[in-house]
Amino acid sequence: MHQYDFTEPSTFLVLTLLMFLIVVFRYVLIAGIFYIVFYVFDPKGFERRKIFPKHKDPKQYRKEVFWSVFTSLLFAIAGGLMVVMWQKGYTQIYEDVRQFGWWYIPVSFLIAAFIHETYYYWLHRWMHKPKVYRLIHKTHHDSHITSPWTSFSFHPGEGVLQSIIIPVIILFLPMHYYTIVALLTFMTLTSAINHSNVEIYPKGFHKHWLGKWFIGATHHSLHHTQYRFNYGLYFTFWDKWMKTESEKYPENFENHTI
Ligand SMILES: [Zn+2]
Ligand SMILES: [Zn+2]
């Protein structure tokens, strides 16, 4: 990889295009699998797990895919810039696992996820200020009933704000490049889970000592319908600490699990 000069415009363009294809492919693959299993295949066992059983407007699906593909382009540009920063030596990205040891791989993953969570929670609360909401966050909430395709359905303004956090994290947190790829895949996967409109976690998960810290479809669907609660991204801790977790969550969770 180091034989290419990514600061050269045409090489940067090819790199960004390649990243765009990877991000779109990962989105279509993950959201597509969820969609086929929950909506096309639609096994009877999921009936109770569906949060909103009624079908949504097909036009909304098209909008979600359109905005998600656009956000993928913004994520690809951020990815391209990360590679340039890496090549220029501005980042803490490392290539040899032995440099920090195997134990550091999951630790750095968790640290980055916690930083991302903190950034997103407070950004999200700010985006719910009326003026900001109308300007950049309403596009995401147009999906009143969510679907796996809602995962990246953001206004470009929100897309930019979401895409800058990982490039900032790698400026100071040493991360193996595979850890970054794993985190980005985790981001896509959890976004599809949380927007799938189907609760996949088992009964009692919301009060389990570990499970209660994870956001799922019931948790995030309450955000899309109640607006003022459940701002978190992966984890519930900020919502619990700031008392912004919906009171309806335990009851709703029980109603959608078997
Ligand atoms: Zn959402
Ligand atoms: Zn919101």
Provide structural commentary:
The chain is mainly α and 258 residues long. It has one domain. It is 60% helix and 2% strand. It is built from ten helices and two strands, in the order ααβααααβαααα. It has a two-stranded parallel sheet. The longest helix has 33 residues. It is globular. The chain starts with 8 loop residues before the first helix and ends with a helix. The mean pLDDT is 93. Bound molecules: zinc ion (ZN) (2 copies). The site of one zinc ion has 5 residues, from α4.
Structural class: mainly alpha
The poorly predicted ranges are: none
N-to-C SSE string, H for helix and E for strand: HHEHHHHEHHHH
Distance between the termini: 49 Å
Number of domains: 1
Strand elements, count: 2
Summarize the helices and strands and which ones pair or pack.
Elements: H1 9-41, H2 58-87, E1 93-94, H3 104-127, H4 130-141, H5 156-163, H6 165-172, E2 175-176, H7 177-195, H8 217-226, H9 237-241, H10 249-255
Parallel strand pairs: 1-2
Helix pairs in contact: 1-2, 1-7, 2-5, 3-7
The protein binds zinc ion (ZN) (2 copies).
Describe the structure in brief.
The chain has 258 residues and is mainly α. Helices cover 60% and strands 2% of the residues.
Essential attributes:
single chain, 258 residues, mainly alpha, two-stranded parallel sheet, binds zinc ion
